[in-house]
Design goal:
The chain has a single domain, classed as Rossmann fold (3-Layer(aba) Sandwich), CATH 3.40.50.2020. 27% of the residues lie in helices and 36% in strands. The protein has a six-stranded mixed β-sheet with strand order 4-3-2-5-6-7. Helix 1 packs across helix 2.
Length: 165
């Protein structure tokens, strides 16, 4: 990975999301549901939802990154996990900010594959080492990415904020 960084600003994020939506629309893919991978995918899913006129947005919480460049061994789904009945026989677009290793996306795509009519993925960035080749990518890079929502540290630090179900 390069020591240089990609810097995504909020205005550039708006442009990226709009262009990504255009690529999806031009491809003729018309999702019934956009499934965002929290947290970074929430922003992408919201932008795509507006641009593609999809109001049915769902969230899947997955923990993998524990810091800059530090991860768990494998990504873990956090509760609440989407009800597969809500996804059944739907065309699902999985949205995330980046396909870095691709482990998180693979976990979510594998979860969806058994239950949905069709699943595709859309990301702002895809890295060369990703295990998943996303159908829709705004930009490919090998750099660390500074996203506008995560470049500053949190205002407060919370320990153990994930609730047991």
């Amino acid at each position: 990975m390069s020591d240089e960084r990609e810097s995504l600003t909020y205005p550039l994020f708006g442009q990226a999301t709009r262009e990504l939506a255009g690529t999806i629309a031009d491809d003729g893919y018309d999702p019934d549901i956009i499934l965002s991978i929290a947290r970074g995918g929430l922003f992408v899913a919201g932008g795509l939802g507006y641009a593609l006129d999809v109001k049915n947005l769902h969230v899947m919480n997955v923990e993998f990154y524990t810091g800059v460049g530090t991860t768990l061994d494998m990504p873990v789904m956090l509760p609440p996990v989407p009800n597969v009945v809500d996804l059944s026989q739907k065309k699902v677009l999985v949205a995330d900010d980046v396909a870095d290793t691709g482990k998180t996306l693979k976990l979510v795509l594998d979860f969806c594959a058994e239950h949905v009519a069709e699943v595709r993925s859309a990301v702002i960035y895809e890295k060369p080492q990703s295990r998943v080749n996303c159908e829709y990518v705004w930009k490919r890079t090998d750099r660390w990415i500074d996203f506008p929502w995560s470049v500053e540290p949190p205002v407060v630090r919370r320990a153990g904020q994930v609730l047991d179900s």
